[in-house]
Specification:
Layout: E1 3-14, H1 39-42, H2 53-65, E2 73-74, E3 77-80, E4 90-93, E5 103-108, E6 114-126, E7 130-132, E8 141-143, E9 150-156, H3 163-180, E10 192-202, E11 212-217, H4 220-239, E12 247-252, E13 257-263, E14 273-274, E15 281-282, H5 285-293, H6 299-308, H7 314-320, H8 324-337, H9 340-358, H10 369-380, H11 386-397, H12 404-411, H13 419-431, H14 434-442, H15 445-462, H16 469-480
Parallel strand pairs: 11-12
Antiparallel strand pairs: 1-9, 1-10, 2-15, 3-4, 3-14, 5-6, 6-9, 7-8, 10-11, 12-13
Amino acid sequence: MQWETVIGLEVHVQLSTQSKIFSGASTAFGAEPNTQACAVDLGLPGVLPVLNENAVSMAVQFGLGINAEIPEVSVFDRKNYFYPDLPKGYQTSQMYHPIVGPGEVEISLEDGSTKRVRVHHAHLEEDAGKSLHEDYHGMTGVDLNRAGTPLLEIVSEPDMRSAKEAVAYLRAIHAIVTYLGISDGNMAEGSMRCDVNVSVRPAGQAAFGTRAEIKNVNSFRFVERAIAFEVERQIELIEDGGQVTQETRLYDPEADETRSMRTKEEANDYRYFPCPDLLPVVLDKAYVDHLRDNLPELPAEKRARFESELGLSAYDAGVLSSSRAMADYFEAVKDVCGDAKLAANWVQGELSGQLNREGRDIADSPVTAAQLGGLVLRVRDETINGKAAKQVFAALWNGEGASADEIIEAKGLRQVTDTGAIEAMIDQVIADSPVQVAQYREASEDKRGKMIGYFVGQVMKASRGTANPQQVNALLKQKLDRA
């Protein structure tokens, strides 16, 4: 039997506010446990929450960024459940009237096509604390620093049909929130994580199968692997005569498997009701219009501009606009060197290759955009050739100079373009290679094209790689072809 996979994601994005959603406590990452949880976060008697306006602004910006409906009124609810890292006994969230309504996200697929994934809604809520299981010898510690941190939960429709599509959607969300500057998107620090809803159904069947929810997956790679395992598990279970149970599961990356945590709760199990301590949020048109007018250029718009104005290919434009950090770096390089295509080649080629080899992010590149732009400029104006440029890049990467110009001068890499100097080197190579010259002149025209490489190599060696390769080739051919 042929099976179809159905996937929906609930993405939790930590908003980049300085303080928590209902209190003035800091949201800074990395503080000592339980040093950033105030009386409001702990729900102590007599305290009242005060809504953080920046969290509202960021949520609305996201909604505008995905062309979503922005309701005039949204309401906070209490989601009641007991867990050690939730000291109040309830989580303040939005169940029935979220701040962002239906929208959509366009994703790019590996075959170059695009697909639109619908977003059901996005709502604001507070994060819970964090349970710590290590170093407690059979006990669990609780760090409440994260309690009250503002989250935007983005709930998709079940529109994705493969793990690849789910990862593409997650990357698109990541790009949007980081372009907007409403989150740093750091998955390693928990700034973005998602719950993955997976089900399978026979191909052609309209009704959905029973879904399982995989909680708190915190990397693109783990999302793909968790879905792959869960799809295979569900298909095998059904084909063996069993039934999929609606439940919450956990992905274990070390074992590369999902495991059952608990049977899935329904909404009524949480006893949602409007929060009595918070008034409804009313957004007037002027407020929303002001945020819309001040949105930055988003990934899709930037990609289109890179193609139409800078003449980049669809592939290059897609890669270079995939993250705000990458796009900003590329544009800075382009502004210095004045050549978008050459800048794109170096950012995607030499720079990205070295970053990948060392497992670095572009934000941590030892070579600044200004330095790379200066290097590309010297390639463009033929001060150095391609081989020398790679030497300069390596020196910049290793901190051997402040600029490409400084390294070029220090290492004597300036390209020799003086025809007389190049001719002198060529004459010497020809004089030193009588056997190879004779073989070249006896060869047919089609074989000469390959044989000339020997002479080019000798001239480049004599010039310590600084001779202009195009001039070397042209002058060599003239001299060698003479009878």
